[in-house]
Structures are given as C-alpha cells and as structure tokens.
Write a structure and sequence with these properties.
The protein contains 3 helices and 20 strands. By secondary structure, it is mainly beta. Strands 1, 4, 5, 6, 7, 8, 9, 10 and 17 form a 9-stranded antiparallel β-sheet that branches. It has a 3-stranded antiparallel β-sheet with strand order 12-11-14. A 3-stranded mixed β-sheet has the order 13-16-15. Helix 1 runs antiparallel to helix 2.
C-alpha cells in the first residue's frame, strides 16, 4: 500500500500539476482497513506513536483506496501503545452542515442537489453531480445536508456516493477496483480517547410545535477548522426557556 498523505483540516486540493501533495507529511500505518457500504465509507487505522504529531482531530488522510485516491477526516483518536482512529470519507462532513429549506420545481437530480448545497449553513465546499435525467417537484426542510442528499437519492432512485468534495447521485454504483490490506494485529494497552461525537458550536434549538428562537442560531465563542452544527429539539413551549436550556446545552457541548 502507498504512503498516506496527511493534510490540514481546511485543505480541499490534494494534488497539483498531476502530482500528489505531501501536505503536513506522510505515514505508513501498522494497519489500515477500508469499509464501504450504503451507510458509511471509512478506514480503521493504527499507526506507531512516532506519527502522533500528524494524527490530530479533523486532519485529513489522503490515501489510495479501492476506488482511487480519496480524503478521509480523522476523528476520535485513541493513544496507547499505538495510535488508533476511524476516519470517515470527507463526504460525511455533510452531516455537520444544515439545510433550512430547499424547493425544487420540475428539477433534475443535479439541479435539486445544487439547490440544497446553495442553501447550506454554513457555506460548504461541495459540488454536485448526477447523471439522472428525470425531473420532480418537492421540498426538503430542516435537515443536515447529508440527510437531504439521502432523501434525494431515494426520490430519484439513484445511488449516493462521494468523490473528494463532489457529492454524486448516479444510476449505477461505482465499481470496486481492488482489495483492502491489513498489516498487523492490534496492540492493546492503556489508552487516551478523544470523543468529538457530541461537539456542537452552532446550535439550532427547536421547542414544542416547531418553536424557534427569534435569532434562529446560537453560536459558541469556541471555533474549530470545520463546522459542528446541530439541530436539537427541547421539551419547552416558551422562547425564553428554550433560549436558556439551549444556551446551557451549548455550554456543555462546545468543547
């Protein structure tokens, strides 16, 4: 297996002039397992402790997969006798972008996809592609961009996939061109684990019967290199109470 290239969290271009960019450096893992199905595309990676300076939360791994070179975002690192992480394809960043609403009228799949991306909060770096020519009319409201794309793939009877920062809904599935390689057995020991699954820095709180705040979003003063946006429902009928419980929630989950 080729070296894995490590890039900063904000990188969107991984090659220049036909050559791969080294980014922050390269690594050769002890173990690398690729998993791809209808619900996920990820790699399980174990690397020696020598690579600790390269393996950080939200950094991007750029590596050769069964579907060509693709970027994966590091998440929830464990450090013990080795470094472990499960990195999801960059396309799953769409789960941290939010759609207030998108309406398509007699639209092709690609037009509908692009309208969803155009109404992203915050603005996202993804582009859309589809080879499906049929048209439809509908609305999508208050969902993550990822869930919105899943809805579109079902409506247009297509397959959702990713290629770098391109979201694809196509008539057929992409072809598997290779095999995954496992390098060595896992080493057990004491570990330090980072868990970012509940982190939120931009919160859209919703109360009973669709109650929302006048200002819509609450924002943390803490910021990271990629968005952590969430829509969270609270059991309250009063806007003042909604603002209070949402502010407390944001204070607990923004780090």
């Amino acid at each position: 297996m080729s070296d894995i290239f490590v890039h900063l969290p904000t990188e969107t271009v991984f090659a220049s002039g036909g050559l791969l960019k080294n980014g922050e450096g390269t690594l050769f893992p002890s173990k690398c397992i690729e998993k791809k199905d209808a619900n996920t595309w990820e790699i399980e990676l174990i690397a020696p402790l020598d690579y600790q300076s390269l393996l950080k939360q939200d950094y991007i791994l750029y590596l050769e997969t069964r579907y060509g070179y693709q970027p994966f975002r590091i998440n929830n690192i464990e450090i013990g006798r080795s470094i472990k992480t499960t990195a999801k394809h960059i396309g799953f960043d769409l789960k941290n972008y939010y759609l207030d609403g998108s309406t398509s009228t007699s639209a092709t799949c690609q037009t509908a996809m692009q309208d969803v991306l155009n109404h992203s909060y915050p603005t996202c770096p993804f582009t859309a592609y589809s080879d499906i020519a049929t048209t439809d009319t509908f609305s999508i409201l208050e969902k993550s961009l990822y869930d919105s794309m899943v809805d579109l793939s079902l409506r247009y009877d297509g397959f959702l996939d990713f290629d770098h920062f391109q979201v694809r809904i196509t008539l057929t599935q992409g072809a598997d061109h290779g095999e995954t390689i496992e390098y060595e057995k896992n080493l057990e020991g004491a570990t330090v684990t980072e868990n970012w699954d509940s982190v939120v820095t931009d919160l859209y709180p919703v109360g009973n019967d669709g109650l929302t705040l006048t200002e819509g979003w609450l924002h943390s003063t803490n910021g990271y290199d990629r968005p952590y946006t969430k829509r969270v429902e609270f059991d309250t009928d009063n806007e003042a109470d909604l603002r209070l419980v949402a502010t407390l929630y944001l204070g607990r989950h923004d780090v």
